[in-house]
Recover the amino acids of this structure.
């Protein structure tokens, strides 16, 4: 009886070990989806001639949701145990996908800026949010990198650098 329980105990233990990488991956998926939602909202913005102050509401909601999701991700990553090699590879793959989602959304934010410029208050509000999101993203990146095996931390930093660069250039355009 005891012996037959053993495999269950072992698999539960394995599940716990995997939970940290899995929770970071889930946080990244949440962040990615919130970024896509923000991008969709950008795409449904009216042209500058039709833009009204109320149109900024959905954008702010999406921005705040994204910021919350990144901040939750920071906590998840900080609370995580060190990642195994297998988890590190999965997180690296997820980082590459997230990087393209974030870069394409930031590029879109630059594309739609002329529409916002019709209303003086919009760009400064976006700038504040961008800075908060960049700061949270930096903290998320640092927290994840600190859980990666030491030998891979340099590579992890390199994988994240384009996200930082994309934030920098978008912030420069909104400043
Ligand atoms: C993100 O969106 C994808 C596709 O819609 C979905 O499969 C996935 O479950 C979502 N992730 C989270 C964490 O909600
Ligand atoms: C954001 O929207 C632009 C414009 O439609 C599109 O080219 C880009 O692929 C979208 N990116 C994401 C992450 O949805
Ligand atoms: C986690 O990894 C770091 C190196 O990145 C190491 O300094 C630390 O001791 C490790 N922590 C545990 C609990 O193994
Ligand atoms: C982004 O800007 C910050 C602060 O200005 C700077 O420290 C960082 O190196 C820049 N990142 C990249 C990838 O250029």
């Amino acid at each position: 009886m005891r012996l037959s329980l053993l495999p269950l105990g072992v698999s539960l233990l394995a599940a716990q070990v995997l939970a940290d990488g899995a929770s970071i991956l889930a946080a990244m998926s949440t962040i990615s989806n919130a970024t896509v939602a923000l991008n969709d909202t950008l795409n449904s913005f009216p042209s500058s001639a039709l833009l009204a102050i109320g149109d900024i509401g959905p954008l702010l909601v999406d921005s705040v949701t994204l910021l919350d999701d990144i901040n939750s991700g920071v906590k998840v990553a900080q609370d995580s145990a060190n990642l195994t090699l297998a988890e590190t590879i999965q997180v690296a793959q997820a980082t590459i996908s997230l990087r393209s989602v974030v870069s394409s959304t930031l590029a879109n934010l630059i594309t739609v800026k002329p529409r916002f410029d019709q209303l003086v208050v919009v760009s400064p509000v976006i700038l504040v949010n961008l800075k908060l999101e960049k700061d949270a993203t930096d903290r998320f990146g640092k927290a994840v990198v600190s859980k990666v095996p030491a030998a891979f931390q340099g590579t992890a930093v390199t994988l994240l650098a384009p996200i930082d660069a994309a934030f920098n250039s978008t912030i420069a355009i909104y400043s």
Remarks:
- The CA atoms of residues 66 and 85 lie 28 Å apart.
- The helical segments are 2-43, 56-79, 85-116, 122-147, 153-174.
- The mean pLDDT is 88.
